[in-house]
Design goal:
Blueprint lengths: L1 E2 L6 H5 L9 H9 L3 E4 L4 E3 L7 E7 L1 E6 L4 E5 L17 E5 L3 E7 H9 L9 H4 L12 H14 L10 H11 L5 H8 L3 H11 L13 H8 L1 H13 L8 H25 L7 H10 L3 H9 L3 H4 L2 H23 L3 H8 L14 H11 L12 H5 L17 H13 L3
Antiparallel strand pairs: 1-2, 2-8, 3-7, 4-8, 5-6, 5-7
Length: 419
């Protein structure tokens, strides 16, 4: 193993789960005190039983964690699990070996604890929340890691159970993509789900699309809204059914996920009417699905009671897994790439990209309005500037969403998603 003179950038440190809530000044200090290490394929990074008081983070390459009972876990730098420490507990219960040339960090535990202890994290999470509690079952992995392992095992064996859209949404999506689709056929499909049919008519009669005459039939609503808007709205309405669980332990968290998603969906919808270049219904859908990966995590948590019953472990699991799972789910649903990207980039507060603003920018800006933006100055979040929005210095909310008209529109959009 070789210690280089290279320091990890503050941005690289912030990508690590235990460090993401640190302030810029602290990250710069930690960066200056930390060096990148290199190791060739086959190198041993950590032995079972080691008391080495340093925390390892994988930056590039592939590592293999071999547990005392013979269980093996492979971690690649592209995996979400690579954002967490490798085999944190001491003495170590893992033999960590490089399975390719690797770049990694060795951060002294004292230095790390000092950095984390110098601020009060806004999220209430500290390094202890991410600690691997290496117990005596399933490879001595802690509760959060057992959930992660179960998910990755199912993913690797193509048995991963992902949420599926209700049949009516799938059938309408297929019909809209058919060149022979017409309003009458789409209307008949919508009418097979009375609850969605009522919501479609209500949307068609809303202030944005309503004319002088109020519509009473689904066919008229389809004609007024247009095929693409209908598809987006039906998917939006159908999503509500996915935010349900029969687990008493997880029901409250699922409801919280739905209410947060509904609020962000309403905000993105209203923001899209104040910025050129967006379809308001697609903006609403982008907001609604931005945390869809959390659905899969909560579903799997039912099989790991230690996670289901531990709010901290559940939140850590959602945080570390939702981005990758969101991409898989939305790919399965065959939603537009820009919407899938919005889900994957929803909390990338420093996100920069060329070209015009996109739906990810809308979702990020909506969360800034809600006070969810890490420790950044909201006025310096690139998405906010890219959209041409201003932040109120006192409230830290977006000025475009602070007037009475905006509040009324937000309330109407939330009501549209009620249920």
């Amino acid at each position: 193993m070789t210690e280089t003179t290279e320091h990890p950038s503050p941005a690289a440190l912030r990508r690590l789960s235990t460090l993401r809530d640190l302030g810029d000044d602290i990250l710069h200090t930690l960066s200056a005190q930390t060096f990148v290490h290199h190791a060739p394929k086959g190198a041993e990074l950590l032995q079972i039983g080691s008391e080495d008081d340093a925390i390892l983070y994988l930056l590039d390459g592939t590592c293999e964690l071999q547990a005392e009972d013979g269980a093996v876990t492979t971690i690649r730098h592209t995996d979400e699990s690579a954002k967490s420490p490798l085999a944190r507990l001491r003495p170590s219960h893992y033999h960590v070996v490089a399975r390719s040339p690797v770049r990694f960090l060795r951060i002294d535990n004292g230095l790390l604890s000092e950095s984390l202890g110098s601020v009060e994290p806004h999220s209430g999470l500290t390094i202890d929340n991410y600690e691997v509690e290496e117990e005596e079952d399933l490879g001595h992995l802690g509760a959060e890691n057992r959930l992660t392992l179960r998910l990755y095992e199912d993913l690797n064996t193509e048995h991963l159970l992902l949420p599926s859209l209700p049949e009516v949404a799938v059938r309408i999506g297929e019909a809209v993509n058919n060149d022979d689709a017409d309003a009458r056929r789409i209307a008949k499909l919508i009418e097979t789900d009375p609850a969605i049919a009522v919501k479609v008519i209500k949307a068609a009669n809303s202030a944005r699309f309503g004319g002088v005459a109020q519509l009473a039939t689904v066919a008229d609503a389809v004609a007024r809204l247009g095929m693409q808007n209908i598809r987006t709205l039906v998917v939006t309405f159908a999503l509500r059914e996915l935010f349900r669980t029969d687990s008493k332990v997880l029901k409250k968290r699922m409801l919280g996920l739905w209410e947060h998603s509904r609020r962000i969906a309403a905000l993105t919808h209203v923001l899209s009417t104040r910025v050129n270049g967006f379809n308001p219904h697609e903006a609403m859908l982008a907001g609604l699905i931005h945390d869809v990966g959390g659905l899969a995590v909560i579903s799997y948590a039912r099989e790991v009671p230690e996670v289901a019953e531990d709010p901290v472990a559940l939140e850590a699991s959602i945080r570390s897994l939702r981005s990758q799972l969101s991409g898989l789910i939305l790919s399965k649903w065959k939603l537009p790439v820009e919407l899938a990207n919005a889900a994957k980039e929803a909390e990338n507060w420093r996100r920069e990209h060329p070209g015009k603003p996109d739906y990810a920018d809308l979702v990020i800006a909506a969360q800034v309005h809600e006070g969810i933006f890490g420790d950044l100055d909201p006025q310096k979040v690139p998405a906010v500037a890219r959209l041409g929005l201003m932040v109120d210095e006192q409230s830290q909310h977006l000025q475009a969403l602070k007037d009475d008209e905006a509040e009324a529109e937000i309330a109407a959009a939330k009501q549209l998603l009620a249920g």
